[in-house]
């Protein structure tokens, strides 16, 4: 019987087990919508209840707005009634972000993932004003994405507290990994919280997170679901086992190869073709593929 250990906050908009889905490309380098449909179907069939499209793992820096929206529409047609579709809409330009937010809503997104404005390193006042402007421009629920290692600027705790007052800002994807700080914010803000670091998925659940937005979930979606379910049912021994034996080798592979390269190569090894990354990201070489094969085997997903 379920003990209800995990938080239910945000599940209606963002789900619990989400994969930040890669964007498939064909041999000609164009977005392969057929492969996108097939990948989305595979992930949903394996237990994923939410997909992030056009995030960093979806190669948002090197895909056009038209390509992003075409993939969103195709996936919506394929699995839209079965999962929550979250559109990656954040940029370092507030006006462009608002345009992407509104276009994603028109294309059928259920929710939005909006990253901290990157590279320009705005002040906390600027970060807050950016997110507030975006929140005022849409009725869709927004998940903030705090990843200072990529963006160059964190969303400070006081800024998160202020932004939580906006009715459309309902969640945060945490790739900062400060569990003590996050635990307090989860309680104070009422925001749904999602792990953005796969090695911390289980610890995040323990402090009140709703779920995770995963990259290694491409290779092990069923195990990711089982980890969440095991925790929810109070089977902590099983959850710890999955975290150590499945998540750890896959997270190690991601650390070596990068999320996009690891995810696309892992899918290929599992018989799911989604093409290669676009430059400047490159796929793994032969030696790296063999190391990845070892990791997938050790994780029990190959």
UniProtKB/TrEMBL annotation:
It is found in: Cytoplasm. SUPFAM superfamilies: Aldolase. Keywords: Amino-acid biosynthesis, Cytoplasm, Diaminopimelate biosynthesis, Lyase, Lysine biosynthesis, Schiff base. This is 4-hydroxy-tetrahydrodipicolinate synthase. It comes from the Bacteria. Catalyzes the condensation of (S)-aspartate-beta-semialdehyde [(S)-ASA] and pyruvate to 4-hydroxy-tetrahydrodipicolinate (HTPA). Pyruvate binds at residues 57, 213. GO terms for biological process: diaminopimelate biosynthetic process; lysine biosynthetic process via diaminopimelate. The keyword Cell membrane does not apply. Homotetramer; dimer of dimers. One of its GO terms (cellular component) is cytosol. Pathway: Amino-acid biosynthesis; L-lysine biosynthesis via DAP pathway; (S)-tetrahydrodipicolinate from L-aspartate: step 3/4. NCBIfam families: dapA (TIGR00674). Belongs to the DapA family. It comes from Corynebacterium yudongzhengii. It is an enzyme of class 4 (lyase). InterPro entries: Aldolase_TIM, DapA, DapA-like, Schiff_base-form_aldolases_AS, Schiff_base-form_aldolases_CS. One of its GO terms (molecular function) is 4-hydroxy-tetrahydrodipicolinate synthase activity.
